[in-house]
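Final report, Chapter 2: Outcomes

The project's central promise was a pipeline that accepts a single protein chain and returns its three-dimensional structure in a standardized token representation, suitable for archiving and comparison. That pipeline is now operational. To close this chapter, we reproduce one record exactly as it appears in the project archive, with the input sequence first and the structure output second.
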Amino acid sequence: MRTYETAALMPDLTISFRSQMAPAEPIFEEAFTAFARGTLIPTASGPVAIEDLLPGDEVESSAGVQPVTWIGSTTYKSATSDDAKMQRSLSRITAEGFGPGCPMADVVVGPAARMVMRSERLTSRTAHERVLVPVADFTDGARVVDVTPASSVQLYHLMLGRHATIRIGGIEMESYHPGRTLAHAMGESGTALFLSLFPNIAQAEEFGELCLTRVTRATIDSRQSL
């Protein structure tokens, strides 16, 4: 079990703050482990550190300016600790690792972070040139480097009114969405427990549609080798 902190924008525009224990399983972890403390989020008022955001703040996204509807956070413990569930390292995207200004400075992200990649060869498989790929899939010791902090780090994720991408340091990364198969993957009781972390969401369908297809680096590489 792990403690998860949430802040949600409720229908009456109040903010619900909660601290809740839930299983330290992948589908739960992915809702809280995308961005490290200090990550600058582009808002309508300028860049704001993710830990300083509140539900209701307006963020610049690929779908336009949108309000933050939910923010989740948890404490990352490295794989060297006794916490066996959180086994993956953080990832440091090095400055200009993916081209000029991409990113403009080093960006540290968690295991759940996905970024937009473009590949014309993917269109025959996904019907899209732009797809979402886990940042960790690109770990090569140069552009993306594994990072194991000496102490605990607070990680975050955020949800917008509509699933979209956010430009973090020059790289497009996705806002939170549990994916299309939440109910099927967890069953009725598991889904109910998961949704208890989202007091602003009554049923899984309310998360809406994914803005882009999710794939792995292996999928991209297999298409490019054809």
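Archive annotation: The radius of gyration is 17 Å.
This record, like all others produced under the grant, will remain available to the consortium after the project formally closes.
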